[in-house]
């Protein structure tokens, strides 16, 4: 029979053209598109989770109002309130299930993003290894050419000719080992310090409960929670000691003094501004202030010394949601006042 021999992977050093191609593949710009795409997917999932939980919160508020009216007005049907309670419990179960699934999907995107980052680091390491190996081969060849009869001891294992492994084999092996190391970490270690996941937890909690009191990270995952009487690894403070710094949120821009329409928030301080106003301020032709080489202005809020560049301002979904909620509450209060 003409049976083929077992497959053996290529084992030949890369040519100069191959090394150049590998160097091109390792460029950060090759991976930036994928990181950005995953960030957009996570942003969409976070916004969808927030909208879903905001709807549940509104239903809960409506239910509370109906109960209050039922107490004040005996003519209000108790049966109707009970029906609303049953509907709310059904909706709550659905929202909890959907939110849990979105939570898993966000973590899958974070896992994929981490895997891409491992690939990026592995390629960078391979570029260095291949370049070093090429230099060593050149030096070894030069030494051998300069010696007419180089010394050779067949019993010396260092004289054995070792065929280099294929770059593809090295790449797959290193990426697989990095993935194994990642998967052995607890869920808390994987996600509690990831900005995407922190943002997801915050915006979902805010939409549901309308406050900043997000549970501490060591309580996010049931399998990582400490048993009764134990302290979670790496957490020295009790829940009572964990306090979140809160900033009073205004619905008006401190520059225009008008209601926000397109608010952006500083990454360096907890202050928000109308996008067009702060952008125009930073880009003023006579502005000669610089921060890390870019045009900057001191935060316009009195008492804040932070220098802000265009890179320091961003659209914060949770802040925008809070501002919109406050604006709606103000409008509702004005309408109630007018009716009275």
Automatic annotation (TrEMBL):
<keyword id="KW-0479">Metal-binding</keyword>
<dbReference type="GO" id="GO:0005634">
    <property type="term" value="C:nucleus"/>
</dbReference>
<keyword id="KW-0863">Zinc-finger</keyword>
<dbReference type="GO" id="GO:0030915">
    <property type="term" value="C:Smc5-Smc6 complex"/>
</dbReference>
<feature type="region of interest" description="Disordered">
    <location>
        <begin position="129"/>
        <end position="160"/>
    </location>
</feature>
<protein>
    <recommendedName>
        <fullName>SP-RING-type domain-containing protein</fullName>
    </recommendedName>
</protein>
<comment type="similarity">
    <text>Belongs to the NSE2 family.</text>
</comment>
<dbReference type="Pfam" id="PF11789">
    <property type="entry name" value="zf-Nse"/>
</dbReference>
<dbReference type="GO" id="GO:0061665">
    <property type="term" value="F:SUMO ligase activity"/>
</dbReference>
<keyword id="KW-0539">Nucleus</keyword>
<feature type="region of interest" description="Disordered">
    <location>
        <begin position="1"/>
        <end position="23"/>
    </location>
</feature>
<keyword id="KW-0808">Transferase</keyword>
<dbReference type="GO" id="GO:0016925">
    <property type="term" value="P:protein sumoylation"/>
</dbReference>
<dbReference type="InterPro" id="IPR013083">
    <property type="entry name" value="Znf_RING/FYVE/PHD"/>
</dbReference>
<feature type="compositionally biased region" description="Acidic residues">
    <location>
        <begin position="145"/>
        <end position="154"/>
    </location>
</feature>
<comment type="pathway">
    <text>Protein modification; protein sumoylation.</text>
</comment>
<feature type="region of interest" description="Disordered">
    <location>
        <begin position="49"/>
        <end position="82"/>
    </location>
</feature>
<keyword id="KW-0833">Ubl conjugation pathway</keyword>
<dbReference type="InterPro" id="IPR004181">
    <property type="entry name" value="Znf_MIZ"/>
</dbReference>
<dbReference type="GO" id="GO:0008270">
    <property type="term" value="F:zinc ion binding"/>
</dbReference>
<feature type="compositionally biased region" description="Basic and acidic residues">
    <location>
        <begin position="57"/>
        <end position="72"/>
    </location>
</feature>
<feature type="domain" description="SP-RING-type">
    <location>
        <begin position="238"/>
        <end position="328"/>
    </location>
</feature>
<dbReference type="InterPro" id="IPR026846">
    <property type="entry name" value="Nse2(Mms21)"/>
</dbReference>
<keyword id="KW-0862">Zinc</keyword>
<dbReference type="GO" id="GO:0000724">
    <property type="term" value="P:double-strand break repair via homologous recombination"/>
</dbReference>
